[in-house]
């Protein structure tokens, strides 16, 4: 499971951590996050994230 970076604000989504504040539990792959999820920092959609190594 790779990490994804928001291209707007730089927030890193780490599947090992998830996004508990948005109801995304640890261990959730980015691909399995609901399509209506938004960046917890700047509010943009999943389309604004890129896979990082």
From TrEMBL:
Binds 1 Fe(3+) ion per subunit. Its cofactor is Fe(3+). Pfam families: Rubredoxin. The keyword Iron applies. Gene3D superfamilies: 2.20.28.10. SUPFAM superfamilies: Rubredoxin-like. Keywords: Electron transport, Iron, Metal-binding, Transport. It comes from the Bacteria. Residues 1-52 form the Rubredoxin-like domain. Belongs to the rubredoxin family. This is Rubredoxin. It comes from Clostridium autoethanogenum DSM 10061. The lineage of its organism: Bacteria, Bacillati, Bacillota, Clostridia, Eubacteriales.
